[in-house]
Amino acid sequence: MRLKYILAWIFVILFVGVVAYSLQTEVPFGHDLTKLAKYYVDNTARETGIPNFVTAIVVSYRGFDTLGEVTVLLLATLGVIGILPWEKHKKVKKAHPVLLWGIRIVFPIILLVGVYIVIHGHLTPGGGFQAGAVVASAFLLYMVSLSAHLDLESFAFTESIAGAGFALIGVAGIFAGGAFLYNFLPKGNLFDLFSGGIIPIVYILIGLKVSSELTEVVSHMMKGGAEQ
Amino acid sequence: MTIVNLLIYVLMGLMIVMAIIAAETKNLLSAAIFSGFISLVVSMLFVYLQAPDVAMAEAAIGAALSLAIILFAIKRTGEVEEK
Amino acid sequence: MMFYIAALSLIGIGLYVVLTKKNLVKVLIGISIADSGVNLLLISVGYLKNGTAPILEKGLNKPMVDPVPQALVLTAIVIGVATLALAMSVVIDVKRHFGTVELDKVIKMMRGGDNGDA
């Protein structure tokens, strides 16, 4: 029995040592930019017309990867819904008054922060994935404190509309410019809110999709499935 | 060594200590809470590493949603680890 | 260098939990700790000394850190929480079928042919 722990520690220490040594020799901490990174840093603002380079890479340069990633998210959500199906009639406990009144003040503010993050995703830090997480945590707080049943049908509807919109914009790029997710709208000025062509639209759709999917996941983890 | 560097080292040490506690404790609830704290500290380190986008995502997901999912699972499976 | 060691320590502790613990929820907590460590490692690989965040600002012309690992980690975090939820729901299903989430007991029940399905 003790041998198992000793072997596990030896394995872990060997793994950490070898990887740390090889990383420090190959890519030392704070090394110069690679060729690819240099290309992105030099050309992103000119090619996509937005100042946030992370958003540019996620939505524009690697937009097809992002479509695959939201598909993974969709499949994981479907798996959770399939394993823990929703149960309508379940007793709910009343929350503490502090929580009950606090949520009424905090919930709209959190939603507003989420909307701000997604709308300015191409100018400041933030975007669809972060805003999706923020909005889903707002709905989590809502469910925990008010013990109210959310209307999950509308979340599923929003999710499918957003996913279909993302794919349709990508296909429209094929007809407009010959490539999937081609930026066919005018790019505008660099630091304006309405700039970047399709990038803010796609990121808003991603935000809607991620927020509704994460809300469904959390609500099914919370209330789905039959009790033992 | 500036004060920021000192703070970063303290945060890293705290993070590793919390990970060891989360690994060794028998109570799953405290292990879950410590893993949420680790996510929060990691998001602070992301800010130091000039990655504000990632820090925002990690703070919202690691400290709220991931922790909530683990807690809901613990509520249904029992909170004490045997042996 | 300190960031590499801290991130790899998180990965190592998560790996240790996966290797030695028998409670399935504990194993998933270990995986989520290792997940945080992997994200920290990828971001610190892209760090540049005295670099700024990869967001352009008016009148600021300083070198930037690598934006590619940040874009990868951003999606990896969101997918991580979804797959964690999927794994947790499978664990809840295991609890419903076998009445326990201790791995050795579950294996014993499966070998004995008694799946405890009431």
Order of helices and strands of chain B: HHH
Question: What is the count of structural domains of chain B?
Answer: 1
For this entry, what is the oligomeric state of its chains? heterotrimer
Highest-level CATH class of chain C: Mainly Alpha
Structure summary, number of beta strands of chain C: 0
Strand content of chain C: under 5%
Do you know the CATH topology of chain C? Helix Hairpins
**Unreliable segments of 5+ consecutive residues of chain B:** none
- Which strand-content bin applies to the residues of chain B? under 5%
What's the mean pLDDT score of chain C? 87
Radius of gyration of chain C, CA atoms, in whole angstroms: 20 Å
Instruction: Report the sheet with the most strands of chain C, covering strand number, pairing sense and barrel closure.
Output: none
Please count the beta strands of chain B (DSSP E, at least 2 residues each): 0
Outline type of chain B: flat
Q: Which CATH-level-2 architecture of chain C?
A: Orthogonal Bundle
What is the radius of gyration of chain B?
A: 15 Å
Structural class of chain B: mainly alpha
Classify the secondary structure makeup of chain C into a structural class. Answer: mainly alpha
